[in-house]
Amino acid sequence: MSLKAAARPSRFLDSSMHFGTALLRLLPAELAHDIGMWMLERDLLKLVPLPSFGSSLTGLGMNIPGIGEIAHPIGLAAGFDKNARAPRGFARMGLSFLELGTVTPRPQDGNPKPRLFRLDDQMGLINRMGFNSDGASTVEGRLHALRWNHDPIPLGINLGKNKDTEIDAAIEDYSQGLETFGPHAKYFVINVSSPNTAGLRGLANEHFLKELGLRHKNILSKLWVKLDPDMKKRDFQGLVSALADIGFQGLVLTNTHRVERPEIGGMSGQAISAQSTACLEWAHEVTKGRMPLIASGGILSGQDVFQRIARGASAVQIYSALVYRGPLAVYSMLEELRNEMALRGFSFLSDVKGSYYND
Ligand SMILES: Cc1cc2nc3c(=O)[nH]c(=O)nc-3n(C[C@H](O)[C@H](O)[C@H](O)COP(=O)(O)O)c2cc1C
After folding, report:
1. What structural domains and CATH numbers belong to the chain?
2. Hey, which end of the chain has fewer CB within 10 Å, N or C?
3. How far away, in angstroms, is 69 Cα from ligand 1 center?
4. pTM value?
5. Pocket flag, ligand 1, residue 104 (CB < 6 Å)
């Protein structure tokens, strides 16, 4: 799989993609998602003359420690392709790295529908999917068949626990995931931050994560932890400091913000941008660059990408932007990012990294 070279999208392509995305938005959110996934799984985008990046990627390459070189900073956030059904389709949309999952050890249905809601005016969503997962064995089978070559698009697996696994036994669920997917994942994300599985966020503590880290110390350089944006600053920074000391490779900041209104679940999109950005700044204050960070949460434009990289992220992940901006989201965001860099006098994105903190 490679990031192809070619031209800008034609006006026709641009309009039809916008039209298609707007049409999907007329459907209930999860149905629209399922249709999108159906198309991506069949790699139908290959029939569309999508723009490709070519020389427009010059200067946008980044290195994520432990994951490797990526052609540009925009990757896929967890939850879109929970079951490894469509990595090729996502690669075709131009994403530079992919995070699949959350996968649970055993298959489970997740919460009853409806469980996904749009917040159109904020380019956001509320979800309470509750880890609908085909289970580790099925997902492993797909990855085995896929034989993914991580160069140039690294693929990571996000791991969770089953709903009916007691909290005291949760470590076994994560361990099982790590063992099952060892050969397939360039990196792992320990998800202790989704708001829709009772007790899961309670695992975001030093004791639990230290035990997990010690048990898997031979692969600590592959392990990232995804945190939620709802902790108090002092607790958050204490945990970040502990995770750095344990030796986890990096952090994904952040998952969704827990809400009860207008629906119970996790909120994403514009409304969580400030909170996620604050977490990035808090983490940077503690780690001062010694632990790589991947930003997620309300990244909807190239300007947003710029701001997160400037605040120390090595890369970003998107979910809501794909829902609201459609299959050309990555292309458009990269163009916006280039413009933002030009405006601020940067030729290389690696020079933008952390620049917000410079005197
Ligand atoms: C429908 C939906 C399902 C999600 N599922 C997961 C998941 O399984 N695991 C996870 O770590 N994050 C999950 N997320 C969170 C996203 O990965 C991302 O962190 C969050 O949506 C914020 O990014 P955004 O504002 O770009 O959407 C999910 C988000 C949505 C909207």
Report:
1. 11-357 (3.20.20.70)
2. C
3. 24
4. 0.96
5. no
